[in-house]
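Input record, target 12 of the design panel.
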């Protein structure tokens, strides 16, 4: 992966990309935190950030042709969908009474009573 990627560093309050820009790279946040509105939107650095940029064409050629890598990417995306669904449930709950704290192996999280 190192041979097809490059590392970029951004300072706090820098912009990684702007809404409407065409992306030609897979961007992976290696360190730091981004603030991003719903896609498609701009992404701003909340902290100093280090990202890994991988050219999308090269990524497709090398990685997506390997079924094991493709499967892991799908698994990762499914986990992100689960997280988004949980966040939607939390935000839809109308009152604090409808929410409760749940302790899991990864720490505490808020879930609705509906679960």
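The sequence produced for target 12 reads:
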């Amino acid at each position: 992966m190192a041979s097809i990627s490059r590392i970029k560093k951004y300072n706090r309050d820098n912009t990684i990309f702007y809404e409407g820009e065409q992306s030609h790279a897979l961007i992976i946040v290696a360190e730091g935190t981004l603030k991003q509105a719903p896609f498609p939107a701009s992404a701003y650095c909340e902290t100093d950030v280090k990202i890994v940029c991988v050219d999308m064409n090269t990524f497709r050629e090398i990685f997506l042709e390997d079924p094991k890598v493709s499967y892991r990417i799908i698994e990762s995306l499914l986990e992100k969908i689960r997280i988004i669904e949980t966040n939607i449930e939390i935000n839809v709950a109308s009152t604090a009474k409808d929410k409760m704290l749940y302790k899991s192996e990864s720490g505490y999280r808020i879930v609705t009573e509906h679960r």
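The helical segments are 56-62, 67-92.
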